[in-house]
Amino acid sequence: MVRQGDRISRNIDWITVSLYAALVILGWINVYAAVFNPDSHPSIFDFTMNSGKQLIWIGAAIVLIIVLLVIDYKAYDSFAYLIYAFTIFMLLVTLVLATPIKGSRSWLVIGELRLQPAEFAKFATALAVSKFMSNVDLQQQNWRDHAKLSAITLLPPLLIILSNETGSALVFGAFLLAFFREGMSPIILIIVAVVAALFILTLIFPKFYLIGVITLLVGTYLWLNQRLLRKIKLIGLLYAAVVVIIFSVDFLVSNVLQPHQRSRINAFINPEADPLGDGWNVIQSKIAIGSGGILGKGFLQGTQTKFDFVPEQSTDFIFCTIGEEHGWLGSMLLIVLFMGLLTRIIFIAERQKSVFGRTYGYCVASIIFFHFLVNVGMTIGLAPVVGIPLPFFSYGGSSLWSFTILLFILLALDTHRKQDLSRAI
């Protein structure tokens, strides 16, 4: 046991651990700031408030870290599919037995403890995806392998969508970045990006105006590159597909999306249209962040925070607390910490000697990047409000534990990279 502890302390990536610790501690302090009340709850250690509860989650996360590092690293590869299967089972149990909370059947309530299996499905899917990809070669473009990989990746978000938790389901699209690193054709990424862009543009601009601009661009490009006229049939099919996508957006929004999802899209497109309703969160969030200026109003001095103008400010909108109380400099510091963490994770992924370890590392980076990008984006009005937490920072045990497990499985794999190297040699 002593030798194992020495090995872990020598080989673990302390830079990543330090970045993790900084984000968790800063998150805890800002959770306290978001719920601070000088009259009824003045202490950060008040265990009836979110800050005190978050401290309990942090203590439990430390225990999780120790367990994750002590477990034989081979277990993560060997039991990847079993962990994935258990998570699928928990999602099914949640779908059947969970009590709806704010319209979502995504929480299992056990006494005072509330767990969200959708959060844990992210690291379980990352393990299963990494296990599968360690045995195939995506560069061979085998459709059966792609079908199996798609099934592994899409099953959890489908179950999560059925529980009415769309935001958590969207995160699984981030796995495309890991697939691309392992040889998946970039065409798939391009198609996804184009469809997403067309969806957003159709919501913002009139359909016929958008089609006219696209027609002009395509016509101009063909006129400048007349050699492409030999592929006019393919170009025609692509053009027709674009037109179909544009005209299908209204049907999708009106007949497929649920009312609360439509309201979030409307708030994203034009929050001022309903400033006291759908647009309230985004408007108040931007007011809070903008009012912080360069240096901020000071710790515990945020008026938007203190008077509860921004809902869910200790969870989904915690970035507002940073912007209001610590200003542009505090916001930039947080962004730098996340960018440093993501850069370090990619560095760790690239130095793995196994496909399993490298793929898992990119899955970790992709999930954290997606959460960070969307969470910060929705607080400043650049992304729709989809209700996903800021990793390691937002209040919540399920979120903190799932991201801790996600990250420290990678660090556990990384502590054995030298053993993998010696076997490779």
TrEMBL record:
It comes from the Bacteria. It is a multi-pass membrane protein. The chain crosses the membrane at residues 12-35, 55-71, 78-98, 158-179, 186-202, 208-224, 236-257, 328-347, 359-386, 392-413. One of its GO terms (biological process) is cell division. Keywords: Cell membrane, Cell shape, Cell wall biogenesis/degradation, Glycosyltransferase, Membrane, Peptidoglycan synthesis, Transferase, Transmembrane, Transmembrane helix. It is found in: Membrane. Pfam families: FTSW_RODA_SPOVE (PF01098). PROSITE patterns: FTSW_RODA_SPOVE. Its main location: membrane. GO terms for molecular function: glycosyltransferase activity; lipid-linked peptidoglycan transporter activity. One of its GO terms (cellular component) is plasma membrane. This is Cell wall polymerase. The lineage of its organism: Bacteria, Pseudomonadati, Bacteroidota, Cytophagia, Cytophagales.
